[in-house]
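Module 6 notes. Inverse folding takes a fixed backbone as the condition and produces residue identities as the prediction. Think of it as a translation problem where the source language is geometry and the target language is the twenty amino acids. Below is one complete input and output pair. Work through it position by position during the lab.
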C-alpha cells in the first residue's frame, strides 16, 4: 500500500472538495509551503485535464511527464493512446 504524501491542507479546506480537488489543493498547499517534491507527489494522484497535459508536454516535453509520473488517461482519451509520442 502506498503511503500518501505529507498533508499541508487544513481539514477545513478539504470540506466540499472532490477527491481530485483534494489532490490538487494538497499540491498547491505543498507548493506554497515550499515543498516542491511533495507538491509533485500530490499531483501524481490528480486527474489533470487533457489540455493541461498537452500544454505541459509542449513546454516541458514528453519525458518530463513520464519522469514526473503524471496520470495521462484524460489526454489518452482526447488525443489517442500514443499522444505523448505523436504531438
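Target side of the pair, the amino acids:
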Amino acid at each position: 500500500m502506498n503511503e500518501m504524501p505529507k498533508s499541508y491542507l487544513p481539514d477545513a479546506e478539504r470540506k466540499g472538495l472532490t477527491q481530485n480537488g483534494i489532490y490538487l489543493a494538497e499540491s498547491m498547499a505543498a507548493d506554497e509551503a515550499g515543498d516542491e517534491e511533495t507538491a509533485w507527489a500530490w499531483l501524481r494522484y490528480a486527474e489533470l485535464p487533457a489540455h493541461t497535459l498537452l500544454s505541459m508536454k509542449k513546454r516541458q516535453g514528453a519525458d518530463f511527464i513520464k519522469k514526473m509520473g503524471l496520470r495521462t488517461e484524460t489526454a489518452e482519451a482526447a488525443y489517442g493512446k500514443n499522444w505523448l509520442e505523436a504531438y
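Reference fact for the lab report: The helical segments are 11-14, 19-32, 36-43, 50-60, 62-68, 73-79, 83-86.
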